[in-house]
Design a protein that fits this description.
Blueprint lengths: L3 E2 L2 E2 L6 H11 L2 H6 L5 E2 L10 H15 L26 E3 L2 E2 L4 E5 L2 H21 L4 H34 L5 H8 L10 H17 L2 E4 L1 E2 H15 L4 H14 L21 E3 L12 H13 L6 E5 L5 H11 L6 E5 H10 L4 H4 L3 E2 L5 E2 L4 E9 H9 L3 E2 L7 H10 L1 E2 L12 H25 L15 H4 L3 H4 L10 E9 L1 H17 L5 H9 L6 H9 L9 H21 L10 E3 L39 H10 L12 E5 L7 H16 L4 E6 L2 H9 L8 E3 L4 E3 L5 H14 L2
Parallel strand pairs: 3-4, 6-7, 8-9, 9-10, 10-11, 14-17, 17-18, 19-20
Antiparallel strand pairs: 1-2, 4-5, 11-20, 12-13, 15-16, 21-22
Length: 736
């Protein structure tokens, strides 16, 4: 079994049996199997008459009792989310044909806390809190948490019983070792590396099974000590540890659907992992497991665990080099935080150093404090507000001011009628101020929507996330469910897309209308409503001659900085809620530039309706004409440390970067430069648009070709046509 990439054949270190199992998982075999049983039906006749807490426990017990088990010969770890709805972050249980609870995603829970104390230790902690509690409601809450642990233990016992049955049927075929490894964990703390991997996987898979899509977080910090101890005692070899790490990664892609369901990719499961970085004492935590993870990704190309490396000036040169070598294989599986910038950003926002230094991310790159944060975000499009509220190029649908209504308006705007009134502004500054008013109105909507849902943070609200309370600090300590605001941090980040597209358009208007006077604002708006028809010369001038973000142009940088600062100030002015919900500013598109493309009109900087524009806080495809270094410098000139909601730079490198030692050094240089300049988050991919186009025509020839999509990577052939087109457009225009 061989695995390939844009660089060619991948290295071979693992056993053939391990590689064959990886191929089965990557093919979608196990994910498609789950579609046979998408959910379980709750049959309790009293279900409608019991409390929401009791309904939740009933749901849990139904799932862990009825969900199919999966034990694959040759795998050292067991535990699987085997219900199809769970693959889509839905709770896979229904009553009278209807879903009973909502899934949870964009979160990273505290697996390490439960891992280190075991479920028995967690149960003891809960009982201790309950015994000191006189409030009857909170006593009931703690009783429900114990029942959640009972459900996990029931699922655990089913696996143990099944393993005993397999041992009896197939003695000597390896099930004995799997049984012994699972027997004590996660009930008790693990005693070695193998048990630690099994315990973490079992807890993680259980959350998946019930519709919770959590990231894993700093796996080398959590488990690296177990491996180092085993190596020191001679209890395990590097080769054995690499095989076990590979099997953990293989388990992580067992929800791949192949091409059964098209969309944004079959590897988009929000199970992010961070490597490296420092601990609270400032010591770099990079260890043997950090390197083994890179070995596995390099060999198998598994993209289902997106990896972000916490880079800093004192990180081991050897680790940075290994990361750069893996980057050469493409797929964009590895991204980079400038650790110091992120920590400073979080502390500027009010997080204590003890929390900030332990940051991880959620489903893409939004930083959060693992095991302490309830997180969600609200996507916005600044270009939408410019084109609808200010220029009247588009008309937006009316909506009710709710999150859903506002979000739908971004996708459904349509061209303004040709006879619609054309707005007038005395000068550029008046136009600019109109844009800020549109942004402020949208931010106010977010807070109004949060206010309208305040009921869900009260004691009377239904409990919908009891299991989350086991893994998130604050819930047990306060005696408050996760769904009711029990976590230490409750974050509703505001994520603005289209910032640099808006800056490019504003600069084009300023220069063509108010400085160079090539046309009036009325004439420009008419042109944009007509998709630049009849003035291709002027469109190309705007597109190719005027400054665009990404080339480290002083003018484009200044406009983008101005716009970002004003956006940040607007968001921060509202970010003082009495209920404690944090609403930090961030910048992202998360791939929505694809679904927004036809709801956006032609732009003043030369783009036509339907063009795919800038991803995240990156140059528009084709705009980065001066290479990766200029794009990084432009990005790092922005007020990144005022964006605690996070912001991402996408760098696409040409296929020549996949070859030669000199290009390993070049990739290392880009990463070091990014950190020196005070970047925030950078995701890199090496792409070959010729290969991508061939894969579009002949998917059977490229089954394992993976690409960076947005905050995740995915196998190219599992993307639908729209997503494939977006990736190709970026690669064709932006490969440096």
């Amino acid at each position: 079994m061989e695995f390939y990439s844009v660089k060619g054949k991948r290295p071979v270190r693992l056993k053939e049996s391990t590689r064959a199992l990886a191929a089965r998982a990557l093919s979608g075999e196990f994910g498609q199997e789950a579609f046979h049983t998408p959910f379980v039906e709750i049959t309790n006749p009293e279900y409608e008459n019991i409390s929401s807490e009791e309904q939740y426990i009933c749901m849990l017990n139904t799932i862990v009792t009825k969900a199919p088990l999966r034990i694959v010969p040759g795998e050292p770890f067991v535990g699987s989310a085997t219900l199809g709805d769970a693959i889509f972050a839905q709770v896979p249980a229904r009553y009278n044909g209807k879903n009973v609870f909502c899934g949870i995603n964009h979160i990273t829970v505290g697996f390490d806390n439960v891992l280190y104390m075991g479920l028995n230790g967690l149960r003891a902690q809960i009982r201790g809190r309950s015994q000191c509690q006189k409030d009857e409601k909170k006593q009931n809450y703690y009783g429900c948490l114990e029942k959640c642990i009972d459900a996990i233990e029931l699922w655990h016992k089913r696996y143990l019983d099944e393993l005993l049955s397999l041992i009896a049927q197939h003695p000597g075929e390896g099930y004995e070792e799997v049984y012994e490894n699972l027997k004590d964990v996660p009930l008790n703390p693990p005693k070695n590396f193998r048990q630690a991997l099994q315990s973490l996987w079992f807890l993680f898979a259980f959350t998946r099974l019930i519709g919770i899509w959590s990231g894993i977080g700093r796996i080398d910090k959590m488990l690296g000590g177990f491996l180092e101890d085993d190596l020191a005692k001679g209890a395990i070899s590097i080769e054995e540890a690499r095989e076990l790490t590979a099997h953990f990664w293989i388990k992580g892609c067992e929800w791949c659907k192949g091409d059964l369901v098209k969309g944004s990719g079959d590897a988009q499961h929000y199970q992010n992992i961070l490597l490296g970085g420092r601990d609270i004492t400032g010591k770099d935590i990079t260890n043997t497991l950090s390197y083994l993870v890179l070995d596995v990704v390099e060999e198998l190309g598994i993209s289902d665990f997106p990896i972000a490396i916490r880079a800093h000036k004192d990180m081991p040169e050897s680790f940075l080099r290994r990361a750069a070598e893996v980057v050469q294989y493409g797929a964009g599986i590895i991204a980079f935080y400038d650790e110091q910038s992120v920590i400073e950003t979080l502390m500027n926002y009010g997080y204590p150093y003890s929390d900030a230094v332990n940051f991880t991310n959620d489903g893409c790159w939004e930083v959060l404090i693992p095991g302490k944060t309830r997180f969600s975000y609200c996507p916005m499009d600044m270009l939408h507000y410019l084109q609808t509220d200010v220029l009247g190029v588009n008309k937006a649908i009316e909506h009710d001011g709710s999150f859903v209504g506002m979000y739908m308006s971004l996708q459904t705007a349509s061209p303004a009628e040709s006879d619609a009134p054309i707005p007038e502004y005395a000068d550029f500054d008046e136009l600019y101020e109109a844009l800020l008013k549109g942004i402020e109105k949208a931010v106010a909507w977010v807070h109004s929507d949060l206010d309208s849902r305040a009921y869900y943070r009260t004691e009377e609200a239904p409990a919908t996330a009891l299991v989350m309370s086991l893994f998130v600090e604050g819930c047990i300590e306060r005696g408050v469910d996760f769904s009711k605001g029990g976590s230490y941090y409750d974050v509703q980040a505001i994520h603005m897309g289209g910032v640099q597209d808006c800056a490019n358009s504003l600069l084009a208007i300023k220069k063509m209308v108010y400085e160079e006077k090539l046309l009036t604002l009325s004439e420009l708006i008419t042109l944009l409503r007509n998709d630049w028809e009849g003035r291709e010369d002027l469109r190309l001038y705007a597109l190719n001659k005027l400054p665009h973000f990404g080339n480290d142009s002083a003018q484009s940088n200044e406009m983008t900085v101005r716009l970002l600062n004003d956006y940040i100030n607007i968001v921060r002015a509202y970010d003082n809620r009495a209920d404690g919900i944090k609403c930090p500013p961030g910048v992202s598109t998360f791939g929505r530039e694809g679904e927004w493309r036809y709801a956006r009109g032609a732009t003043a900087d030369g783009h036509k309706r339907g063009d795919i524009l800038s991803p995240n806080l990156s140059p528009a495809p084709g705009a980065d004409k001066h290479g990766a270094t200029a794009a990084i410098q432009a990005y790092c000139s922005l007020p990144l440390k005022q964006l605690p909601g996070s912001c991402a730079l996408d760098i696409k490198l040409g296929p020549f970067m996949a070859r030669g030692e000199e290009n390993v050094s070049a990739v290392m240089g880009l990463i070091k430069g990014f950190c020196t300049l005070g970047g925030y988050f950078m995701q890199m991919d090496i792409v070959d648009d010729a290969i991508l186009k061939d894969a579009q025509l002949h998917p059977e020839k490229h089954p394992e070709l993976a690409v960076r999509v947005s905050g995740w990577s995915a196998r190219f052939v599992t993307l639908d046509a729209q997503w494939q087109e977006m990736v190709i457009k970026r690669a064709s225009a932006g490969g440096i």
